[in-house]
Structures are given as structure tokens and as C-alpha cells.
Write a structure and sequence with these properties.
Length: about 375
């Protein structure tokens, strides 16, 4: 006898709607106090960063025209990246309750100390958070020298297609130039219409910051050492910044622009965590908890470690893939992924969610 299940073609089940479930998770997270401001932590970070800058400045002057200044340049690059992490936290409203105080903290940290435009970055980063790894919407997968889909690789000229086939191996040397690119994009972004209501203040801060370090290098150091000092600072800064952000989404799901995916799945399935210790939390500025950061962008970074087990358990309960790996494995994934894209391999990049999610979550 033929059963009903054999006689009638099976219908594709609708996707679970995680909206209500995620709201409940947010309530639990808030009840645990994980969204509260951590003023002691951030003021300690501000004081610590300020003390390091003073120490580096004193060491810079005392060393004088010496090749030991290259060590100072490297330490300065690390400090600038840590400062950028604090600016990132302020831009996400993690530090203060007041939007104005967070904005001014971002302006000082990003523009005046790091030399990056808060207005340009805020616009770009907000679009990334809204649509991570979504074709045509996420600016972080729209670059000129690196491609993230085979379709992008097909559009290049013969030289670019040759480059794309090797882009994975060139990615980490290339990020050494990211410091220069970030300064350039900051200034360029501020001249675009409607990008920042504090354009001239940002430009003044950027001019003071970039001009100040160039002036100090050539005033205290001989020309050759000054050039090497700036090169090491920019190269190390770009490398650290690039290595902090690259593992988070590269090699994860690339979603079609027209696919309707609920907020929870869109953030979790396109993000990757880095397993580690408290040292790695400091090293990555909390961005090693990328899944949790995307789900709770205004949560102070120190709380991300605490909320991660709750999110992981929630994903296991709902059957949603939760991706985490080691730091070195994440870098390996990035290199292999970019090389496969450049070689035009399509099958590994056909989104397995497309068939299930294209019709959107159920009501």
C-alpha cells in the first residue's frame, strides 16, 4: 500500500522565523546586565592609551636620530590600532549612553589620533553591519584590487585576472598598504556630498594628525630614517588593521542581493568567531566575537565573551550554524577562499541557503 508521504511530492518546508526567538534572547541578555555600560573598563582603557602615547613620545624625543626609532614606529602602529578599536566601540554607542559623547569620542580617537575619518567610516561600516556579505550592498566586499566572487573576477582585464588568481597569497602583503588606503579614503570620503555634517572639523583634525606626524619625523630625524619610520608605522598599522578585520567575514556565506533573510541568520551565517583567550580579546579589540558583535553591536566589547556561550547555545537549539575557528586557521581560510574565487571556481560559492531562504522567513 502506498503511503500518503510517498504518493504526494514533499513540499519544501518554510524557514523558521527567528524574529520572536531573537527578541526573547535579547531580553535574556539584557536581564543578565550584559548591555550595561562599562565605564570603569573604558576609562581605564583611555588612561592606558594616553599613558602609552606619552611614553612613546618621550622615547621618540630621547632616542633622537637613531634606527631604534623603527621600534617606536612599530609600537606606535600597535597603539594606533588599539585606538581605532576604541573609536569603533564609541561609534557603536558602546562607551557612553549619550550619542553626542560617543560621537565626540570617535572624532577625537579616529580623526585626531588615528587619522581616519569618523564620518566616512561610520557610513561605510553601517552599510556593512546592515548587510554583511550581501552582494551589491556590503562595501567590504566591493574592492578594486581584491574580488570576493567569481563574477567580479570575470570582469577584469588580462592583468587583473592574472592577479586575481594569486590574490589570496598577495592579500597579507597587500594589507601592509591598508594604512595609506585608509588615510586616502578618509580624505576622499569627506569631499563627497552629504557624507559628514562635521566635514571641516574632521578635515582639520586629519590635517593636524597626518601633518603632525610627518613634521615630527622630519624635524627630529634624518630624511632616510624619517622615511623608514613613516613606512614602518604605516605598514605595521595597515597589517594589524587588515589582520583584525579579514578573518571576520572572508570565506563565509555570500548572499545574493535579492535574498530575503531575517536579521539573526543574516548576521550569524555570514560571520566567524576566533577562539582564544583574554589576550586575543585584547589583540582583536573584541572583534574575535564577530557573531555576537553583529547581533549586539552596542554591547560593550568586554561583555561579548560573556554573551558568546548564550548565543552559541541558542544557535545549537535552533539548528543555525555557529562558526568559530582558530586564528591561524581563519587566515588559511581567507587565503584559500580568495585564491579559489580568483580561479573562477563557482561551486564552492553557490550559497547553500539560496534554495531555502530565497522565499524569506515564514510568518
Amino acid at each position: 500500500m502506498t503511503t500518503l508521504s510517498n504518493a504526494v511530492p514533499s513540499m519544501k518546508p518554510k524557514q523558521h522565523n527567528f524574529v520572536k526567538d531573537f527578541i526573547e534572547l535579547r531580553r535574556k541578555v539584557a536581564a543578565e546586565g550584559l548591555m550595561r555600560r562599562r565605564y570603569f573598563y573604558y576609562w581605564a582603557a583611555f588612561i592606558g592609551i594616553a599613558a602609552i602615547y606619552v611614553g612613546l613620545g618621550v622615547a621618540f624625543v630621547l632616542l633622537g636620530d637613531s634606527w631604534w626609532q623603527l621600534l617606536i614606529a612599530g609600537l606606535l602602529a600597535i597603539t594606533l590600532t588599539q585606538t581605532a578599536f576604541l573609536g569603533h566601540d564609541a561609534a557603536h554607542m558602546q562607551i557612553f549612553k549619550s550619542a553626542k559623547r560617543n560621537e565626540w569620542a570617535s572624532l577625537i580617537l579616529a580623526n585626531l589620533l588615528v587619522g581616519l575619518s569618523y564620518g566616512w567610516w561610520q557610513d561605510k561600516h553601517s552599510r556593512h553591519h546592515a548587510n554583511p556579505n550581501v552582494k551589491g550592498k556590503d562595501p567590504d566586499i566591493e574592492m578594486d584590487v581584491i574580488v570576493f566572487t567569481p563574477e567580479q573576477a570575470d570582469k577584469g582585464n588580462p592583468f587583473l585576472r592574472w592577479w586575481y588568481k594569486r590574490q589570496g597569497y598577495m592579500f597579507f602583503p597587500l594589507v601592509c598598504l591598508e594604512g595609506i588606503n585608509l588615510h586616502y579614503q578618509s580624505v576622499r570620503g569627506l569631499f563627497r556630498p552629504g557624507r559628514s555634517h562635521r566635514r571641516w572639523l574632521e578635515l582639520a583634525f586629519l590635517t593636524l594628525r597626518v601633518g603632525g606626524i610627518i613634521f615630527a619625523a622630519f624635524w627630529f630625524l634624518s630624511p632616510l630614517i624619517a622615511v623608514c619610520f613613516l613606512a614602518v608605522q604605516l605598514g605595521a598599522f595597515g597589517f594589524y588593521m587588515g589582520c583584525s578585520f579579514a578573518p571576520n567575514h572572508k570565506g563565509m556565506e555570500i548572499l545574493p542581493e535579492d535574498m530575503k533573510v531575517d536579521f539573526f541568520q543574516r548576521q550569524v551565517l555570514t560571520s566567524r568567531n576566533i577562539r582564544g583567550s583574554h589576550f586575543k580579546d585584547l589583540l582583536f579589540g573584541g572583534l574575535n566575537y564577530q557573531i555576537e558583535h553583529h547581533l549586539f553591536p552596542s554591547m560593550p566589547r568586554i561583555a561579548l565573551r560573556e554573551v558568546a556561550p548564550m548565543v552559541k547555545a541558542f544557535c545549537a537549539e535552533k539548528g543555525v550554524r555557529y562558526t568559530e575557528t582558530t586564528m591561524m586557521q581563519s587566515f588559511k581560510i581567507v587565503v584559500e577562499y580568495l585564491n579559489r574565487v580568483g580561479l573562477g571556481e563557482r561551486d564552492p560559492f553557490d550559497c547553500p541557503l539560496a534554495g531555502n531562504l530565497r522565499m524569506g522567513p515564514s510568518n
